[in-house]
Hints:
Helix content is 54%, strand content 1%. The protein is an all-alpha fold and 613 residues long.
Amino acid sequence: MVSLFFPTAAATRSFFPRRGIAPVLSAAVLLAGGLLASSAVAQQQTSAAPQQSTDTTDLKSTAPAAADPAEAPAQASAAVLSNTDTSKKTRKSSDKVVQSKDTVKNEKASQKARAQQMRTNPLQDVKSEQPDKQLYDKAMVAINKGRYEVARLDLQTLLSTYSDSEYQMRAKLAFADSWYREGGSAALAQAETEYHDFIIFFPNAPEAAEAQLRIGDIYFKQIDRPDRDFAKAVHAQEEYRTMLTQYPDSELIPQAKQHLREVQEVLATRESGIAAFYATHENWVASIARAQTVVDTYPLYSHIDDTLIGLGDAYAAQSRYIHTLKMPEDAKARLLKIYDDQAVAAYSRVVTQYAASPHVEDARDRLEAMNVPIPEPTPDQLAASQALEDSRQTYTLANRAKGLILHGPDTVQTARIGEPSLADPKATLAPAVAKKIQEAFTTASNPNAAAKANTAVAATTAAGTAADAGASAAAPATAMSLQDIPSSDAAPDAATGSSFTATPTGVAPVSSGGGTGMGVTILSHPGATSTTPTANGLNAVGPANTTELPPIEKAAPAPDAVNDVAGQKTPQGQAPTLDKNGNPKKTKAEYNKKDESSSTHKKKTGLDKLNPF
């Protein structure tokens, strides 16, 4: 090894003193470290100059002679370590660096976390030494760590101490967010109150839309499964609609729309489930009412094709029922046409408007079975339906596990595009459907009578309108006064036979019996007679009959008392036994050993003791 790295003179003469092996080993270690360092330098020089030949012979021939013996080991080490495979080309400095998937994923996660922090605390980059800003930052750190009580204390201190602070609005919103992030029914109720207060104090601030969205999220987090109580879903729908209508320019509109679609998905699932339940019990009237409500109110429902097919099946079931009735053939044909047309309309809507839905082939099969031409969707309808179906998510293992563990609703297949309905149309009720069915039967059985009835109703309506117009035209110009109303004993009119010459509109006729001329008879007491009216139909003050009332009659004697225990009638006039003071003497009942026992009487013995009676 010495002859390889050192000149020939060093090889012929010993370089180390002969005093033991330890100094030799230490020198060898130092030499190895120098060799490694020189090899690293040689590799860097090689990568920096790729055009330079790396062959060992070329290095030996082109390397200059070492002027200093200390440089020789470095040159030799470079020559030895560079004797490697030179087939691989070194990367140029101009080549583009491609990041790995993990690096890209980490960068996206950090950007997402950064955006989340900015949404939570938009003022985190504001550097200020003011005490109110320090309190706000301290509270936000406590909220992020889950120490909500500490955060609320700091925020309350900021709100009460620095009433003119520029962070007043954000502090009040953070105070409500602390309750919202804490969770629980009581905390969410308090958060709703705080958000409402924020909207009242800052109605025109951009954060008011965020507060309104959080109110909807409070109810959204408490929504149960569709077959449970749906009151929270209705409240969430109202709050999201309020946010969309009052803050149309907010940047949170897409998020509010998506939450509203999910809420309406839950409500539509509930209504369609009830319609299916009624269909299994062959209550077609209620099933039609529920299914029609879903179709009219929730067009973005993920199973709208199933609901439309169920609606068509309900009308088809009504048609099959009419086939079993014994009625004239012409009336039966008219009824069959009504229900068949409604079933065809439901199936055709699936084929045209929801052409990309999973059950469109079922609707086509039903139309083909009814011998009806199958409509073809337009390119726009097909593109819109395809975009709607592509926006829905598919079930994954995580979604299914979440549905099994949590008690929330299933909103995986909710649409991600489309405008949710901001106002519910008029709901279809079962009584209205039953009334239409009854009218259809009446019209089909007797079309002439139905036409006459419609004509009579129209004529009655027109006559009522004309009568109202005539009455309003004949109404007196001025209102009637009290002097215009005659008294009850006035002479009857010759033409009408009544004491009234004309009854004004809106004035009730006077009673024919005696009275004050105003339909009221005043009596002072039972048995008194009405007095003669004086001028202007008024009675004199005080009763006219001054006869004294009859004396109060003496009460009848009480009947004899009956002793229910002894079953005997108590003799009339029997006086009770009196003691020496004249008071009724209390008599003690005779003691019966069979029923009682005490310390002063002998206890019951024998069979009498066991006899309960």
